[in-house]
């Protein structure tokens, strides 16, 4: 079974045409991979469908803009995957 | 349709909140400055205006679902295909259905028909608070004018 990171990396690679082998958990979606907000919406759409969840992107963005969370909290891939795992666990609870 | 005012939807034929679908009607005007350029001697609806028409139907679908509480802004189109020319005076059936309700965005499938398929696409709309009270006021009036009766099942945030 693929890990959350593998699935996320596959989706990013397919959506943003970034070579899969260049994507690692320590990468920042915006700073390192250069994904813009429109592409990120496509990624979130694909991940929502893939995992059957609703990633609260609007809430995350508000938290970052308000200084309540760092950009890394949600956009560093390993952190993004951890949040996705939490959402999946919540869905299955 | 009032092409110069970007009013593409003339009426709502059916809105089903539970199914997440809308069916609108749009009548292409017989005359418009748009047709003087597109094209001289062979007037047809520009493809971008057909996309706008599908986006507006999708927008009214979302406004119906969220009871005009937040504004959908067109931000992406994929897989757009144009299958036939549309001439002045044509009556178009415009359909949109909800594909995905994300956090702050919505994805729809939309299509236009006129004696068969005209065009179709997947559209992404960002959902935001109304940036101006005047805009919401005008949209409430416009929704009423075209016969959109907002339904149940407002779009809500994930917890």
Automatic annotation (TrEMBL), chain A:
PANTHER family: ACYL CARRIER PROTEIN, CARRIER DOMAIN-CONTAINING PROTEIN. Keywords: Fatty acid biosynthesis, Fatty acid metabolism, Lipid biosynthesis, Lipid metabolism, Phosphopantetheine, Phosphoprotein. It comes from Kaistia soli DSM 19436. One of its GO terms (molecular function) is acyl carrier activity. InterPro entries: ACP, ACP-like_sf, PP-bd_ACP, Ppantetheine_attach_site. This is Acyl carrier protein AcpXL. Residues 2-88 form the Carrier domain. It comes from the Bacteria. One of its GO terms (cellular component) is membrane. One of its GO terms (biological process) is lipid A biosynthetic process. Pathway: Glycolipid biosynthesis; KDO(2)-lipid A biosynthesis.
Automatic annotation (TrEMBL), chain B:
The keyword Lyase applies. Keywords: Lyase. InterPro entries: FabA_FabZ, HotDog_dom_sf. GO terms for molecular function: lyase activity. SUPFAM superfamilies: Thioesterase/thiol ester dehydrase-isomerase. Pfam families: FabA. This is 3-hydroxyacyl-[acyl-carrier-protein] dehydratase. The lineage of its organism: Bacteria, Pseudomonadati, Pseudomonadota, Alphaproteobacteria, Hyphomicrobiales.
